[in-house]
């Protein structure tokens, strides 16, 4: 009578742990051995979950012990006010020493009441934890039972399906033999030829797609190589442009210096004189050298821009 209803229901659930075998109506006539298979599967499942049952029963026993302890504390708390009243009536109107003893006893009783109240609160909290744990285990067991029942039913349905497929194959083989005896071989030959033609068509389509994919891959590889080449050329031309810019700045400085000092070619940098002599084969003024340099500089810029446009399009 001390166990609450939730523990009794948990015990009933744990005592009813079994695997529900599929309905016999689902097993068609002539298929033997499924009942014994389901019983064997249920026995294996019960053995697999024996440890979980023992843990759940141990939790239930601990929970029952806490409930007994809580009820004993409640009975003790119920008896304490009566004892306090008896002590109060006993020592009422007594001499002064007895009053002091009464006050001391009264204080001890109240301290005992507080201690028991705290213990009762702790026991209630522990009981709540145990109830939650028992509920979690109960839900877990129910879910596992449901899953195991579904697995057993799936296995049985799979076996039934395999048998039905085997029967249908036998019927198809029998119908083929009957068709051959009835002289329907030309129709079967036409069907076989149609299947072969369809397979051949799909194979040719697959080969065509594979060939297109290979060509596309080669084209992409070629484009990547061209892009890399253009990128290298752009980098090289950019470095040349930077060098020409530096040389142009230096040339401007040299021109300013030469205009202020002399107007001959003797004060030009030897490197620019050599470049101009190689390009034109004659001596020129600093302004002519600068104009020639700007001309090459503009041509390089146009080339770089065209390469960048080609790279962007690629």
Number of strands: 0
Question: What is the gyration radius calculated from CA atoms?
Answer: 51 Å
Low-confidence stretches: 1-34, 262-273
Derived from helix and strand composition plus strand pairing, the structural class reads mainly alpha
Number of domains: 2
What is the number of helical segments per DSSP (H or I, 4+ residues)? 7
How does this model look, in words?
The structure is a single chain. 4% of the residues are buried. The chain has 7 helices and no strands. It folds into 2 domains: 5-22 and 32-181, no CATH class; 221-313, no CATH class. α3 runs antiparallel to α4 (96-181). Helices cover 86% and strands 0% of the residues. The chain is mainly α.
Layout of strands and helices, then pairs:
Elements lengths: L4 H11 L18 H15 L1 H42 L4 H86 L3 H77 L8 H11 L5 H28 L1
Helix pairs in contact: 1-4, 3-4, 5-7
Protein name: IF rod domain-containing protein
Organism: Monopterus albus (Swamp eel)
InterPro entries: IF_rod_dom, Intermediate_filament
